Request: fold
Amino acid sequence: MRGRLFLLLILLVFPTSLGGGGEHQYLYAAVYTLENRGSQPIKLSEDDRSIPLFWSSKYQRVEVLNSTPGIVRQYLDDDGNPLAFVDLPSEIPPGGNLTLRVYYSIKLRERPKPRIDPEKAGGLNEIPEELVDEFCISTETFKIDDEIRRLAEEITQNESTVLGMVLSLVKWVKDHIYYGSGEVPKYPQETLRDGFGDCDDQAILLITLCRALGIPALLQLGCVYIKNYEGSRFVWEGHLELIQRNIGWHGWALVYIPPWGWLPVDLTLKTVSDPMKCIAETPEYGGYIAVCYNISRSDYVGASREEREYTINSGLYFTLHEELIPQRRGTIIKPQIIALAIAAVAVFLILILKERERLLTA
Reply:
């Protein structure tokens, strides 16, 4: 499944901190169900039959424990994100349906926060040239036009360091762009025009402004553990249903700021007026967020809109049920635990369906 296209349904405005920290281990269960209610076969591309494998790093380890149907091969997309091609049919006949179940082990560690001293901040000349060539280009999602370039230069005209420029851009976005969510992501020009956007919309605008100045930046998307959260909603004219427990999805910018290097910049922190806290105090350091995708070259916005249009017009109905189940630190996730998780997910989904049926017949 093209998981990234559904991340936008529950995107969060964070408190300043999620609390805690340290090391965390989760079982992530995702059940995808597709149903063809149209009169023609629905063809599934390779992307449609792929699942994310998440990134692995010193602070994050993700492993697929079980996939039904099974994984055929692994590959990287245009942005280097690891994906797995699953043994699903290439089309769904009229009246047909298919189900994909995937279970991951996710281990996260709290990351040390950077000690940012403005006196030590570097200039644009301290950014490696290869990073400028790779992460300052104009793309379909991060389109640098004259309006964006003029705005970026105007906002940062009194700054001489990269840190100062980024802080000025963050302050401007927080002062002029309000939080508001939609069913599909926006291009930066649209967020400017509307004056509002959710977490990934605001991050895309910031990234584009940074790139216009020669500051490397990209978009990151990841899942977040949210204790006791349960949600269910329909979007895309009722064609897409998302059922979640203990999980939400979030988007933020990753910006190269010398001499500290790549730093997460989170614009959607509640009650934060100091732009520095959007860099130095972001929840991405807390060990509760698993990075799933980096978006740099791909047309993230356009692909999401195409997927919505195709889903509605083709008669496809899609349900994604997902859950993050905390595990004790050091626990080995055995097949029996996976079986219990499968049963728990199934029971939760049945309860949701029964409640929906009760409401419809009341």
